[in-house]
Amino acid sequence: MTLSILDGRPELKRKIYEVAEVAGYLWQKGWAERNGGNITVNITEYVDDAMRSLPALSAPVAIGLTLPHLKGNWFYCKGTNRRMRDLARAPMDNGSIIRITDDCAHYEIVAEKPVKPTSELPSHLAVHNDFVERGVDYKASVHTHPIELVAMSHTDKFLKKDVLSNLLWSMIPETKAFCPRGLGIVPYRLPGSLALAEATIAELQDYDVVMWEKHGVFAVGPDVLEAFDQVDVLDKSARIYMCARSMGFEPDGMTSAQMKEMSVAFNLPK
Ligand code: 2HA
Ligand code: ZN
Predict the structure, then answer these.
(1) pLDDT at 5 over 90
(2) Does pTM top 0.90 for this prediction?
(3) Which alpha helices (H) appear in 29-94, and where do they start and end?
């Protein structure tokens, strides 16, 4: 059996298998058709000298951006055109470990196979750069296509600031407790574009989950499971809303006094 870079590195292995676990959930939920969605995790803290001395498997590839705070940083990334359902089974065949080169404008694939990273790499890396710059201890970003939330982004009335956040929070108390910063909105931009990356960073100053209009969500957190959980609670609320609508009525939602009471009781930021 050939040795894996994960052998003898239990912490790194655990982090990458968390991604595999979440990839399986995304597929099971129907949020990851074909190659839909992507995940990146900053794994720099698990990199040792032996890893640092490994040769690159690829020539340096331009990111399209210069990200000065990512000098010396390493990431695990889902591969472009790879399926979440395949990554769930075999994370090192459907994703790869990359390092940012010293010019902060390129990456090299280091392990385990020359799997080219996700098409949304500019957004993911720009967001990680922003976290390092601001000293935010978030390591994971997850982009996925949750059916109910994407459906709700197809009408202008839900795209005005905090309208959708307040509606989703009002469907069940847990949503405000477990997604306390709410859902930001990023107007439609071309997938994979720098414009999408910039708009995402701007919105993540105030939110941990942002809606990419008519496309999907981008969620961040200390680890990949926490990022996933925030999307899961928001989508649960969206489903409750749609169930009520399909029974023929507009749900009342919790009152603003009840939501305020939640914020005070749980010391929530909004
Ligand atoms: O990786 O979801 O937005 C496939 C996508 C691009
Ligand atoms: Zn997408």
Answers:
(1) yes
(2) yes
(3) 49-52, 84-89
**Spatial CA neighbour of 218 closest among 121, 135, 90:** 121
Structure tokens at 138: 């978030």
Ligand 2 center to residue 120 CA distance, Å? 8
The residues carrying an active-site annotation are: 120
Give the span between the Cα atoms of 52 and 100, in whole angstroms: 11
Q: Ligand 1 within 6 A of 144 CB? A: no
C-alpha–C-alpha distance, residues 8 and 193, integer Å: 38
pLDDT, residue 72, reads 95
Question: Token pair for residue 162?
Answer: 């905090």
Q: Is 120 in the pocket of ligand 1 (CB under 6 A)?
A: yes
Give the integer Cα–Cα distance in Å for 37 and 194. Answer: 17
Q: What residue owns the CA closest to ligand 1's atom 3?
A: 191
The helix (run of H) or strand (run of E) holding residue 228 is: helix 224-246
